[in-house]
Structures are given as structure tokens and as C-alpha cells.
Structure to design on (631 residues):
């Protein structure tokens, strides 16, 4: 005999195709369906309807289900929010700590760099000032020496002139 | 130390104070915050001075005298230990301080005197007049008022000069005249030079005909109390010779002129004083070491026990001014003195009296060197500490003098080992600057005479 699904030659009386696995015979499904392959409980529709009728029904409470649903949704929402916020806060603190650490390190580097630059600038300014002061000092001393030379020349000229006049 | 036979009081009687009162002989130190003293016992206390790496010990002796020991670190890292013993005589109203380095000061009601170990005692009276006596009591000079051509002047009668550690007496006393000139509201005495005949100055404006060779016996050559950066073998002109002579002859005056016996007495007194001070340091060190509370108190103020104990022997080995090694004179200082020498010779020839205000207001005030002619005690501008300028020490203006101030700020340029240190800025009364200026011009005159009498007759000067 051949498989109803794929036509492969299979043994006589085989329930399934050895190639495609399709069930053979009158209950064979047109497609591969595992649920169809499983055994189905033998419960009729009538029996199911009787069972539903005999099952206990929940008591009627007016608007309660709605209230409970709202409360539940609010609680769930609040819980979620709280959790979210908690999680968020935790994440923020860690991030903040990390960011702060990074910021501190970066600031430290900036401060150190600024201090170094400031120190360099101060040193440079001090150096410039010192150089300017030294230059000013040299100029003042040169001027003082020139003034002294001038006075010496004047006094010597006067002395020699008066000495010549007295000869 | 021996005192003069003529006491300052006697000299004062001979020269009563006039109406002109000069500025105090020492500068008034600028007020500085005092650090509290830590009392060790009823008679001894220690004042920490961490800013100077040191401390001061004050001790009251049983006889009523007071001892002060100062210790601080110098710029080079070495430790300086100094101090004095102070005796107050209520009957005479005098306060006498004997310093461990050989200086002595006496402050009386109308005078102040200063001296160095084995040297003359120089006194300044409230009137502004001066006197100086040798260790044996013989006068070196004294001053009095006189009237010259209708003008009130001061006359100084000079009996001797100091050369190579000995007093050389003149055959006849030399009289020097000083004009009384107001300076910043107080009178000062300005030297009036004695103008010689023109021929006297001729050798100072032309090279020597024969160079003056520097030998050990050269009478007009610089004394070996100074060392120049570039020593000379011979001098070919008078300005170079006079310049070097000017520097050395002033330093030469700080050499002890006392006799061996007088020096021995001074030496014994100083040795005893240093021993007492050193013992006081040791005692303080031991007391602090065994007293935790005192140690903590001193440590809180920056003084360590090691600082106190470390240098207790330094005083014992301290030299006096007159025992010190030669003074190193930089070449630039030497050249500046030579320039000033040229100026002084010409001004002397022109009969100019030079007042300190003339220098202060001139264009060359910044470089002009003042040379101490006698020991004076001055105060450090920064610390307020007392130090001495001795004969020969060279100073210049640190900043232009204030027109209203009787005190100038001066930077030490060259000094002996027990004087204020080079680059130290000290406060010096203008009246003392005038004394230095007078001393410089008088020294120029004296050295010109020495050189004039020898050049051309060198055989006479050698071996003198």
C-alpha cells in the first residue's frame, strides 16, 4: 500500500507512513498536526454541555469585579512604578557614583592641569617680573653710574680750572 | 673690658648738651608682634622664634643683671649664637650691655657709647657731640663748640689715629671743623674739608712717575686686614691706591689697639661671659628635656629640644671682632670706592662740605657706599634684631630715604664676620650716616696726606 500523504510504499496495515509520518487510514489529517496525532478523550458534546450545567457558578456581586480590577490594576501599577523607581534610583545612584568618580577624576586632572598651568604662568610671570625688575635695576644702576660720572667730571673740571687759575 | 680714665660723664661736663638734640643713637625698631615667652622657672624664660629657626633665652642673675642668649639659623644654614649681659646702674642711670662677640654699649642719661674688644670707646652725646678714647684712657679725639667767622661750628681735636693695630699720635693735635646743618628737623655736623695748595692735588690727577710696589713694609699700601678679588702688585695711579687704602684703613681701625695686659683682662671677662651663656643654654636644654609640659609648650610654638641643646658650645668658640680673618672685598665694591674717591678728591679741592642729604637727593644715591667709621648698633628691618656695623663695613641705601624720617633703610654690602651680614637691610639714623660720610671724607684727607708725603720720596716711606 501507499501513504495517503506522500505516496511512499508502506507495509500493509501500517498506521503511519515510514517516510512522512502521516497517519494512514480514514482519520488521517491532511497536514502534520501533533494535536491530531495525540489520542483525544472520548467526551461527547452532550456530555460537555451537561458538565457545564452542573458546574458551580460564581456568586454575582454587582460592581465588585470592576472595583477589584481597578484596585488590582492600580496596585500593580503602583508596584511596578515603585519597583521601577527603586530600580531607577538604584541605577541612578550607581551611575551618579560612577559619574561622580569620573567627574572627580576628570576634575582632579583638570585642577592639576590648571594648577600646573597656573604655576607655570605664575613662574613665567614671576620670571618676567624678576627679569623686568633686574632689567630695571640694571637700568637704575647704569643711570646712577652715569650721574656719578657726570658729577665727578664736573667737580674735577672745576678743581682743575681753579688749580690752573691759582698757578 | 677697661674703661677710659675720662668717663663719658666727665666729657659731658666739658661739653654740656646744647639745644640741638640729635636723633637717638640707635634706630627705633619697627613694632613687631611678640611671641609669648615660656617660663622655665622664676628666673629663666624661653621665647621661641620658629620663623628664624631659633629662640631667645632670658635669665635674671642673682646680682640683678640680666642675660639674653639669642640663637637663630643664618641663610646658609649655619647657626648663629649671640647674646649679652645687661647691667643697670640706677645711681648713674646707665645701662651697660656686654656682648659675647666683644661689643659693649653703654646708654646713659645724656650719652651712648659703643666699643669693641680691645678698641677705642666711641661716645655720642645728646647734643650731637662726639668723643673717642683708647682702651688705656688716652683720648683719640673730642669735640666742642666754637665760633668760626661768626658762625657756630663744631671743632674736633684729634690726638691720634689708629694704624695697623696701634695708635699713632700726631706731633700736634689736628683740629677738624664741622658746619652745623639742619637735616630733617635736627642738626647734624658736616665736615668742612681743609683745602691745601693746588700743588698738593697734582699727583692725584696724573699717573705716578714711579709705580708704588706693594711690599710688606710699604707704608702707604693697604693693610692686610682685607683681601681683594684681584690683588695688585703695584699701583700706577693714586686713585687706585687711595681707593684700596680707604677700604683697608677703615677695617684696620677695628683691630685691637689695647695693650696685651688690657686685652688679657678683656679676654678673661669675655670668656667668663661666654661660659655663663653656654651654661645657661645647657641648663635650659636639660630643664626642657625633663619637663614634658615645657617641651609640649615649646614644641607648640615651634621650638625643638634639639635646637636648644645643639649649639650650646658655639658661644665658647666664638671669635671676637678683632680676632677675625681678613674681610673679602668684591671687585665691584672696590671700583665703586675708587669712583667715590675721585669725587671726594675733587670735592675736597673745591672745598665742598658734603651732607647726607646731598647724597640722598642725588642721581647716584642708589650706588653710593657709606663706610662705617666707628661701631654702631642698628636694627634689622625685618626681624628687629640688633646687630653691629663696625669700622670699615660698607652699606648703601636699600630704598630712597623718606624726607620726614630720621632713619634710613640701608643694605649691607660688605662687612666683617661679626657685623651685620651682607644683604641684610638695617635701619640707620641719618645722623649716623652723616658720621660715616664725615669719616669717609676725613679718611680721604688723611690718606691723601700719607700718599702725598711718600710719593716721590718712596725711600722715606718704605720700612716705616
Amino acid at each position: 500500500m501507499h501513504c495517503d500523504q506522500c505516496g511512499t510504499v508502506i507495509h500493509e496495515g501500517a498506521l503511519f507512513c515510514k517516510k512522512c509520518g502521516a497517519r494512514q487510514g480514514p482519520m488521517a489529517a491532511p497536514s502534520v498536526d501533533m494535536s491530531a496525532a495525540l489520542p483525544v478523550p472520548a467526551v461527547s458534546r452532550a456530555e460537555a454541555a451537561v458538565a457545564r450545567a452542573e458546574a458551580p457558578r460564581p456568586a454575582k456581586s454587582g460592581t465588585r469585579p470592576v472595583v477589584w480590577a481597578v484596585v488590582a490594576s492600580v496596585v500593580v501599577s503602583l508596584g511596578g512604578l515603585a519597583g521601577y523607581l527603586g530600580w531607577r534610583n538604584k541605577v541612578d545612584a550607581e551611575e551618579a557614583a560612577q559619574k561622580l568618580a569620573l567627574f572627580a577624576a576628570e576634575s582632579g586632572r583638570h585642577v592639576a592641569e590648571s594648577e600646573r598651568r597656573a604655576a607655570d604662568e605664575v613662574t613665567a610671570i614671576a620670571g618676567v617680573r624678576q627679569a623686568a625688575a633686574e632689567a630695571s635695576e640694571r637700568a637704575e644702576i647704569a643711570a646712577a653710574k652715569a650721574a656719578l660720572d657726570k658729577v665727578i667730571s664736573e667737580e674735577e673740571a672745576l678743581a682743575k680750572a681753579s688749580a690752573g687759575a691759582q698757578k | 673690658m677697661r674703661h677710659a680714665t675720662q668717663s663719658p660723664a666727665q666729657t659731658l661736663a666739658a661739653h654740656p648738651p646744647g639745644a640741638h638734640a640729635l636723633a637717638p643713637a640707635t634706630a627705633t625698631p619697627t613694632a613687631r608682634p611678640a611671641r609669648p615667652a615660656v617660663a622655665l622657672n622664676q628666673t629663666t624664660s624661653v621665647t621661641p622664634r620658629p620663623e628664624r629657626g631659633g629662640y631667645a633665652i632670658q635669665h635674671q642673675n642673682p646680682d640683678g643683671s640680666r642675660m639674653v642668649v639669642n640663637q637663630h639659623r643664618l641663610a646658609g644654614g649655619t647657626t648663629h649664637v649671640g647674646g649679652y649681659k645687661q647691667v643697670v646702674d640706677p645711681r648713674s642711670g646707665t645701662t651697660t650691655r656686654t656682648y659675647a662677640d666683644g661689643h659693649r654699649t653703654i646708654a646713659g642719661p645724656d650719652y651712648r657709647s659703643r666699643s669693641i674688644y680691645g678698641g677705642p670707646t666711641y661716645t655720642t652725646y645728646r647734643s650731637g657731640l662726639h668723643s673717642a678714647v683708647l682702651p688705656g684712657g688716652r683720648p683719640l679725639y673730642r669735640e666742642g663748640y666754637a665760633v668760626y667767622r661768626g658762625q657756630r661750628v663744631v671743632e674736633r681735636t684729634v690726638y691720634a689715629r689708629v694704624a695697623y693695630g696701634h695708635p699713632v699720635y700726631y706731633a700736634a693735635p689736628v683740629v677738624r671743623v664741622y658746619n652745623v646743618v639742619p637735616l630733617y628737623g635736627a642738626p647734624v655736623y658736616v665736615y668742612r674739608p681743609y683745602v691745601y695748595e693746588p700743588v698738593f692735588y697734582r699727583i692725584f690727577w696724573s699717573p705716578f712717575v714711579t709705580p708704588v710696589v706693594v711690599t710688606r713694609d710699604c707704608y702707604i699700601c693697604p693693610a692686610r686686614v682685607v683681601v681683594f678679588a684681584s690683588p695688585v702688585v703695584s699701583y700706577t695711579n693714586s686713585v687706585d691706591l687711595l681707593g684700596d687704602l680707604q677700604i683697608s684703613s677703615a677695617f684696620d681701625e677695628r683691630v685691637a689697639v689695647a695693650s696685651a695686659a688690657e686685652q688679657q683682662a678683656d679676654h678673661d671677662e669675655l670668656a667668663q661671659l661666654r661660659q655663663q651663656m653656654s651654661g645657661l643654654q645647657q641648663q635650659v636644654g636639660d630643664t626642657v628635656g625633663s619637663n614634658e609640659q615645657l617641651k609640649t609648650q615649646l614644641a607648640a610654638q615651634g621650638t625643638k629640644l634639639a635646637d636648644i641643646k645643639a649649639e650650646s658650645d658655639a658661644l665658647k668658640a666664638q671669635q671676637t671682632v678683632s680676632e677675625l680673618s681678613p674681610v673679602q672685598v668684591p671687585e665691584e665694591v672696590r671700583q665703586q670706592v675708587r669712583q667715590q674717591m675721585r669725587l671726594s678728591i675733587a670735592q675736597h679741592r673745591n672745598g665742598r662740605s658734603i651732607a647726607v642729604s646731598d647724597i640722598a637727593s642725588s642721581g647716584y644715591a642708589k650706588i653710593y657706599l657709606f663706610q662705617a667709621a666707628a661701631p654702631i648698633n642698628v636694627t634689622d628691618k625685618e626681624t628687629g634684631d640688633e646687630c653691629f656695623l663696625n669700622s670699615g663695613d660698607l652699606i648703601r641705601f636699600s630704598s630712597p630715604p623718606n624726607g620726614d624720617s630720621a632713619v634710613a633703610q640701608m643694605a649691607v654690602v660688605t662687612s666683617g664676620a661679626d657685623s651685620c651680614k651682607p644683604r641684610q637691610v638695617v635701619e640707620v639714623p641719618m645722623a649716623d650716616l652723616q658720621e660715616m660720610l664725615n669719616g669717609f671724607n676725613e679718611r680721604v684727607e688723611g690718606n691723601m696726606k700719607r700718599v702725598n708725603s711718600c710719593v716721590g720720596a718712596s725711600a722715606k716711606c718704605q720700612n716705616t
